[in-house]
Design brief:
The protein has 617 residues and is mainly α. It contains 23 helices and 6 strands. The chain binds L-captopril and zinc ion. The site of L-captopril has 7 residues, from helix 14.
């Protein structure tokens, strides 16, 4: 949850649409939950005892309230109708009312000499939006709920009169991944990006009202509130992310140049220029955010073995549930618990045929205890196989910190939440796949470059995208970019960081950023950037704990109980400590640092630079 990230499951991207509202639905159970003590006379000076009581009451209440909001959101996102939308928005609005009240009341105790835990809880409570005005609350929740639904329902209809020619996002992503026909790719790319202009006006209004809620809590705008969630000042966070980007940029540049030369061989010089930005529709992904689908056209010539798990899944007819069970098996091999039976009964693992849903993968913790679920439209692809490991990372984090007090049921920061499953997926090596029977042959060490390259297409390619989405949003929230310039600035950033350009000129009233789920869903995105740095630090730390020596890319912690115990200990801390401490527990380091990702890809960097020299001749 982006605002009440520590109050309710922070890893629910879709649910974040409802933001803080979700934390606090109120109505019918108001009698059964202790009221937040208004009793506190504001005339008298606050006392420590009173503050402790306030926190206890708030936690009990928030815990109870969050369940109802989560359920309403779950039903909405797995069955989008006007009614479920209205019910979810209503639950959000009621939640927002109480959330706003608690956030404001918390201020009263800020100056007291409280325990470290209580001080942290008070701080977390105030890292939220708060609305004084009922009309603003209503507008905020209505807009946030409807934006999520608009994205979920959007389709590209070539011939709107005939619904059968409509493509949903999943179908379009499939075409982007497999087709090598630039005209087809461009058509699908344009068709999807045009959808977002339908909700641009809603988004503009949403931003304005959200900022009101941030200012009420003393932040200059919602972007500043987001950047304040990392145990450091918003400016320090901005500087830290820039430092990390500068660390990894040379690696990205080498990959970008290599991919350019390969794309040029495939599509020809008229489509792919020798210098300057590359058209965005050629990267095998709707947002050009990760490029693993380009592997077949960029793979090294000498690469013999195929690492296509997707092909094996199809060939062996391994379905969605079995894929999720493989992922569960990795976590249990580390000594973690089996997923509760209710997970298998209640999760949505495949796209239902008969109703609209939000397909974007997400993990949910309905009762902040053991009613955990994932919502995903799983296909038999390598990409989805990896994404399941990502989602289960959220779930295992939830389960690990369920004994923490309510306000500490969250990630050390939101980037941690995103990095947990990805770290595990880094251990999905060819050796591991062979062990579990999903690969027939382990490529020998001479083939490492191919394995590393496919990883880089996934991880290194993502870095500038992970960084720029919130560069754009911070500007939007601060008002530095007006709605008429949304696309202009979006494409300036896409060109500056990713080195890509729009496949066609910008359109009147376009909203290309809005074609990315996290923008209408209003899920902060810097979390994924830092997660891509952190997961390599976690991986390096866990491999060390497992006693592994050798190249990082060949390490798998599968079945290593010692590494598993170390990981679990960090997960169990939840949000109770500053993230530096959690990082130290696993990696021995207390700063985010890109040296682990650079180490991991060091052999590839050498190879890429040599290739680039050779190919350029
Ligand atoms: O949204 C996600 C996850 C859910 S938290 C599937 N990711 C980002 C995206 O898809 O854009 C994971 C990587 C980046
Ligand atoms: Zn995630």
């Amino acid at each position: 949850m982006r605002y009440f990230q520590h109050l309710i499951s922070p890893r629910i991207p879709a649910l974040m649409t409802m933001s803080l509202a979700l934390a606090y639905p109120v109505t019918s159970f108001a009698q059964t939950t202790p009221p937040v003590k208004k009793a506190v006379s504001t005339a008298s000076a606050p006392t420590v005892a009173e503050a402790e009581r306030f926190l206890r009451d708030a936690e009990v209440r928030l815990q109870q309230l969050s369940v109802i909001a989560q359920r309403a959101a779950w039903v909405y996102e797995t069955h989008i109708t006007d009614d479920t939308e209205a019910m979810s928005a209503q639950a959000s609005e009621q939640a927002l009312t109480v959330g706003s009240e608690i956030a404001i009341q918390a201020r009263r105790y800020n100056a007291l000499p409280l325990s470290a835990d209580s001080k942290r809880k008070l701080k977390l409570l105030q890292l939220n939006l708060s609305f004084k005005d009922a009309a603003d609350r209503e507008a905020y929740t209505r807009l946030s709920t409807s934006l999520a639904g608009e994205y979920g329902k959007a389709k590209y209809c070539k011939n709107p009169a005939d619904g059968s020619t409509c493509l949903d996002l999943g179908q379009m992503e499939e075409i982007m991944a497999r087709s090598h026909d630039p005209a087809v790719l461009k058509d699908v790319w344009m068709g999807w990006h045009q959808q977002a202009s339908k909700y641009k006006d809603s988004y503009v209004n949403y931003v304005a009202v959200s900022n009101k809620g941030a200012r009420e809590m003393g932040f200059s705008d919602t972007g500043a509130l987001w950047r304040s969630q990392y145990d450091m000042s918003p400016d320090a966070f901005e500087a830290d992310t820039e430092r990390l980007w500068q660390q990894v940029k040379p690696l990205y540049d080498s990959l970008h140049q290599y991919v350019r030369l390969k794309l040029r061989q495939t599509y020809g010089p008229d489509v792919v220029p020798l210098t300057g930005p590359i058209p965005a529709h050629l990267f095998g992904n709707m947002w050009s955010q990760s490029w693993e689908n380009l592997y077949p056209i960029v793979k090294p010539q000498e690469q013999a073995a195929s690492l296509d798990v997707g092909a094996v899944l199809k060939q062996k007819n391994i379905g969605a549930k079995a894929m999720a069970q493989y992922a569960e098996g990795f976590y249990t091999s580390l000594g973690m618990e089996k997923l509760p039976e209710s997970f298998w009964q209640r999760s949505m693992l495949t796209k239902p045929r008969d109703r609209e849903v939000v397909c974007h993968a997400s993990a949910w913790d309905l009762d902040n205890l053991t009613d955990v679920r994932i919502k995903m439209c799983i296909n038999q692809t390598t990409e989805d196989f990896i994404t399941i490991h990502h989602e289960l990372g959220h779930i295992y984090y939830d389960l690990a910190y369920r004994k923490q007090p309510h306000l500490f049921k969250g990630g050390a920061n939101d980037g941690f939440h995103e990095a947990i499953g990805d770290t595990v997926a880094l251990s999905v090596t060819p050796e591991y796949l062979k062990k579990i029977g999903l690969l027939s042959e382990v490529p020998d060490a001479s083939q490492d470059v191919g394995v590393l390259l496919s990883r880089a297409l996934e991880k290194v390619a993502f870095l500038p995208f992970g960084y720029l989405v919130d560069q754009w949003r911070w500007k939007v929230y601060s008002g530095k970019v007006a709605p008429k310039d949304y696309d202009k600035v979006w494409w300036e950033l896409r060109e500056k960081y990713q080195g890509i350009k729009r496949p066609a000129p910008m359109e009147e009233n376009g909203f290309d950023a809005g074609a990315k789920y996290h923008v209408p869903a209003d899920t902060p995105y810097a979390r994924y950037f830092i997660a891509h740095i952190l997961q390599f630090q976690f991986h390096r730390g866990l491999c060390k704990e497992a006693g592994y020596v050798g190249p990082l890319n060949r390490c798998s912690i599968f079945e290593d109980k010692k590494a598993g115990a170390k990981y679990q200990a960090m997960l169990a801390m939840g949000a109770s400590r500053q993230w530096n401490e959690a990082l130290k527990a696993v990696s021995g380091e207390d700063k985010m640092d890109a040296s682990a990702i650079l180490d991991y890809f060091a052999p590839l960097k050498v190879w890429l630079d040599a290739q680039n020299k050779q190919l350029a001749q």
